[in-house]
Model the fold of this input.
Amino acid sequence: MLIVGNWKAYVQSSEKAKKIFAAAKRVGGHAGVQVVIAPPAPYLGMLAVGNRSKVEFASQDVSLSTGGAATGELTAAALADAGASYAILGHSERRAMGESDEMIAEKVRHALANRLKPILCIGEKERDQDARYLSGLRAQIAAVFAPLSQKERMQTVIAYEPIWAIGKTAAEAITPADLGEMVLYIRKVLSEYLPGRGAEKATILYGGSIEPGNARELASGTGVDGFLVGHASVDADTFSRLVKALY
Done:
């Protein structure tokens, strides 16, 4: 299980950042579970410097810029140097700010060029009875995967985050049966870009109302390889219980 805690902008003090990181380190060394945290950029380097735990770091985004006269931009190279191993790209909140598939594809290339493993977020706003939303998911994958090499495609993690499920309670969120069907569909699309058993080996995460109470159920028999956790990752106790539920 790959568990990625996306702190978003919830954490606004170094004291809280250190507290959550300490909790992540306590639960992140268990065999079979890899914990990755994505703190706001100001805390990334602070936490990563001297880190000897098995917890890894992700950036919450990367810039379209590759450096130079670009005030305020956070380049993939700088984030990798600060200690990031992964980069969350195409998150629904970034897409809502106007990021296109083409912009996200370029960011993925920047991340890969700087040895950051992209976590490509895809997901539908809502579901229709004719399942037209599936073609939207296919297009989001195709825009990024088509230009990549086979090696780069295998390094790219998919995070399925249906927007309609975000912020819901566990009872209102996706069912294990529905998640299993979506994982199968995503692997089917990936098989067009990853020959042989490549699609089976691809890492697929789920993001959307993940809590300690439903993590194990959603992990069992759905084919999912882990979770992208939002708000639940910024409470040390809640995140610890969520990770332990997957031991």
